[in-house]
Amino acid sequence: MQANNEKLLANYVPLYVMLPLDAVTPDNVVGNRETLEKNLKELKAAGIDGVMTDVWWGIVESKGPKQYDWSGYRRLFQLVQDSGLKLQAIMSFHQCGGNVGDVVYIPIPKWVRDVGESNPHIFYTNRKGNRNPEYLSLGVDNQPLFHGRTAVELYRDYMKSFRETMSDFIDGGLFLDIEVGMGPAGELRYASYPESQGWVFPGIGEFQCYDKYLAADFKAAATRAGHPEWELPDDAGEYNNKPDDTGFFRSNGTYLTEKGKFFLTWYSNKLLKHADQILEEANKAFLGCKLVLAIKVSGMHWWYRHPSHAAEVTAGYYNLDDRDGYRPVARLLSRHRAIFNFTCLEMRNIEQSADAKSAPQELVQQALSGCWRENTEVAGENALPRYDNYAYDQILLNARPNGVNKEGPPKLKMYGVTYLRLSPELLEKTKFDLFKVFVRKMHADQDFCPDPEKYGHHIVPLEPSKPEIPTEEILEATKPEKPFPWDKATDMSVTPVGGILYYISRLFRFR
């Protein structure tokens, strides 16, 4: 093996691979152990830096309050450690099943769902009163409804138990980061587009704040603002509407009125507070551990080119052409030194339906630029399984938007990328051969580097969160700024012709 070039190593972006959703099965055992062990060795030989796995709340605390059974995960973590890979662990407080790509069903713990039998308001609720049991409504974050504990305390105790039970793996350096689940699919968002309730792409989704806790919170906020007569929206349409089908999102719609702006600010601020509170508990749980915290933000690219940004807005991202809905999240994360993990890195505008007014490239550019302006590290994932050179090249472009710097660190570089996901299809020879080229290009044509310090990852024991940032200061980050320029193509293409395109693109940057 040749020695790596120290200057080029500064351009190295580590690549991880997401394990199957049932790496630990609902029965709390490692799924397909022999196959997984073999696959981990293949991934290690391909040069990847580590793997990511969900750590399902619905498996670990299934038997009752504070009855944690980590046995399946200890076996899984041992397999990963024995393979020589590092690990990203997701505290998965959501249901598996009901979203794009979900192939197994792992609900949240039954004893938690049982509370919902008598009090269905613990779940996200749309205007018609339909409940969604895939994640607890943030309206109960501080309601002691779960055998005397609040939702935040449920999450806190789970993370504390994880830290205590996995201390040997943590101390041994197995974990790179802990991603803290914040909502459906583990993402910081409302459950605005559930396939289980009939949503299909590119529907705008629906607001999810009609449980009694969030409804009361909104009424109190409106009263304090001098408008006790204001109610939650009744003109925002249904899951599969287009923006212009609704009174709320159409041209000159409710979203542009004083009432609409107040509601959307309240709705998105509740999401920010949710993230802030849970990250503070995560920080306390993992204080002193040599790892970093992360959260995932959904790349909702459809209707991005509509003035209302309706799909983003119903999910809780109050993002308009004249208001940045992502940079406030990045500013909030800076208090906890947490990583902003964004999806849809693989998508190109030309692959999307024109009817959906989709713009994943501009969305990624905006979100990443906001993070870098806040000095918040940004990581990412592909949203859908892809095995082709176009997807790989788009991920590579987003990972280093202005290419490799042969003399040291590049101007812009993502903290890491997680590829979705390990599957038999990925390991088919032709596809896996291309994937191995992709791994090497992510690494700036350098060999696997076992020392993160050499590519700029200085992981120190987790320090306490910084003081709480006033809401007004967080919302200052909503002021839009022009994104950083992106090259038209990556200079580390997985195909030879891609490299030629890169040099042409230096003359015409994607803006």
From TrEMBL:
Catalysed reactions, semicolon-separated: Hydrolysis of (1->4)-alpha-D-glucosidic linkages in polysaccharides so as to remove successive maltose units from the non-reducing ends of the chains
Catalytic site positions: 187, 381
An MF annotation (GO) of this entry: beta-amylase activity
InterPro entries linked to this entry: GH, Glyco_hydro_14, Glyco_hydro_14_CS, Glyco_hydro_14B_pln
This protein's record includes keyword GTP-binding: no
Top-rank EC class of the record's enzyme: hydrolase
Binding sites annotated in the UniProt record for substrate: 54, 94, 102, 296, 301, 343, 382-383, 421
Highest taxon of source: Eukaryota
Protein's recorded name: Beta-amylase
